[in-house]
Design goal:
- This protein has an eight-stranded parallel beta sheet with strand order 1-12-11-8-7-6-5-2, with helices on one face.
- It is built from eleven helices and twelve strands.
- The chain is an alpha/beta fold.
- Helix 5 packs across helix 6 and helix 7 crosses helix 9.
- Flavin mononucleotide binds next to strand 4.
- Flavin mononucleotide (FMN) binds next to strand 4.
Amino acid sequence: MILNASGCLDALEAPEVARSLDAFVTKTVTPLPREGNRPVRIAETEAGMLNSIGLENPGIEGLLRDKLPRLTELGVPLWVSVGGFAAADYAELCAALDGHEEVTTIELNLSCPNVEEAPESAAEIVAAARERTGKLLYAKLSPAAADLPDVARSVQAAGADGLSLVNTIHGLALDERTLAPRLGHELGGYSGAALKPIALAAVYQCYRATGLPIVGMGGIMTGRDALEFLAAGARAIALGTVLFADPHAPSRVRRELADELAAHGLASTEDAFGLAHRAGPVRVA
Ligand SMILES: Cc1cc2nc3c(=O)[nH]c(=O)nc-3n(C[C@H](O)[C@H](O)[C@H](O)COP(=O)(O)O)c2cc1C
């Protein structure tokens, strides 16, 4: 299953790309509209990208009124990513979405590096959200947590149905000449190919810790990358930064993944799932 990573695809601007996905994930929506952080909000680095968008979005009312009807017309299962500044925000957003049949899954963005965090723990937020919706709930976590498997276990106990791993991690880029921070917000979220080993470790560890379904993301550029996430324990993968360079990445990665499966003598993604846990480390003679 191939999804987009939240915030990395505008489905209404690129409907044909959205239709090539198995589900479309919205940019994170908050209770009230947000303008986001001041520019500059994107910076390329030697090996990856920094962004400090700061959850620019039309607010839940704007999403439900203006965007959801048009997104529904795409005919692709819809996931809505929600974010807030307190557990009550997440609970309110879940309640607002609960009656909308076209939304299959709610992704709780518990890990945006560009805005202030809620005072409650991830588990407390999941518990508050769980009380207000019967929809599938995925908890999106940061790889920067001190003990990520422990956080994963705690959100599972609080009622999460799955995990989205991983969000970006703090990074800083300095201007070549002035050495001042290049982003208006100074620090940004670091994404792209350099995140892959960190994300793979998160998927590997959290699969072991919980057995929950996982959407793996972080630096997936090719079908080979996708295969590795499946082997580490992801049930689905999401494409983020790659979409900015190659908007047609979903169909390309799907083709490449099919080739990779065949090259490894695997009949389906199901056969690749969790392989890294069964294979054990490679021993060099
Ligand atoms: C420009 C940009 C905007 C993003 N916006 C969001 C967002 O609104 N909500 C969210 O949960 N993650 C957001 N992310 C994080 C991605 O969904 C993803 O977790 C991260 O970029 C790692 O995947 P990648 O290396 O394939 O990009 C954003 C990432 C980028 C690059």
